[in-house]
Design brief:
Alpha-D-Glucose-1,6-Bisphosphate, Chain A, domain 4, 4 helices, abscisic acid binding, signaling receptor activity
C-alpha cells in the first residue's frame, strides 16, 4: 500500500500591485476580510493563538450546510513578507476529519512581469494520504474555496485601492 501525495493549484490575476495584495493576505488581515466579505461563502475565522506570524493558530468555522465536521484548525507555518508566501497546515477538522493524513494550503502573491501594477494570487493545496486504499477521498478535494477567496479579495482590493 503506497502513499498518495499531490497538489492542486490555481492562479488568479489581480489588477493591483503585489505589495498591495500581499497586505490583504498576510498575517490576520485575510481572516478579517473573510469574516467581513464572505462568511456565507467560506465561513468565519477565529484566532485561537498568535498575532498572525508563523505559529499562529486559527479556526475556520464553515457556513451552515457545509458537508463534514463543520470546522478546521490550522497553523501558519510560513509567513514570508519578502517572498510574499503564506503557508498553513491543517491541525484538525476539515480534510483531516475526512481521512487525509496531511493537508497544507500555500498562497503566493507574485508580481506579473508582463503587466506592471498587476499580480497573480497562486493558491496551492498540498495533500497526503498514507494509504492508497484512501484514494476515493481524492474526489472530495476542491480548490474552489481558495478560488473564491482570491476573486473576492482581488475585487475588493481593485475596487478600494484603485479608487484612492
Amino acid at each position: 500500500m503506497g502513499v498518495i501525495r499531490g497538489e492542486i493549484c490555481h492562479e488568479a490575476p489581480v489588477e493591483a500591485p503585489a505589495s498591495v495584495v500581499w497586505e490583504s493576505y498576510r498575517g490576520l488581515e485575510l481572516s478579517r476580510l473573510v469574516n467581513e466579505l464572505m462568511p456565507h461563502l467560506v465561513g468565519t475565522v477565529e484566532v485561537v493563538e498568535g498575532d498572525g506570524s508563523a505559529g499562529t493558530i486559527v479556526k475556520l468555522v464553515f457556513p451552515p450546510g457545509t458537508p463534514g465536521i463543520g470546522y478546521l484548525k490550522e497553523v501558519f507555518r510560513i509567513m514570508d513578507d519578502e517572498k510574499r508566501v503564506k503557508e498553513s497546515d491543517t491541525l484538525e477538522g476539515g480534510f483531516l476529519h475526512l481521512g487525509f493524513d496531511h493537508y497544507t494550503i500555500r498562497v503566493e502573491v507574485i508580481d506579473n512581469d508582463a503587466q506592471p501594477r498587476h499580480c497573480i494570487i497562486r493558491s496551492t493545496i498540498k495533500y497526503e494520504l498514507e494509504n492508497d486504499s484512501k484514494a476515493h477521498l481524492l474526489s472530495q478535494l476542491s480548490i474552489q474555496p481558495l478560488i473564491t477567496i482570491a476573486h473576492v479579495v482581488g475585487d475588493y482590493i481593485v475596487n478600494n485601492h484603485n479608487n484612492k
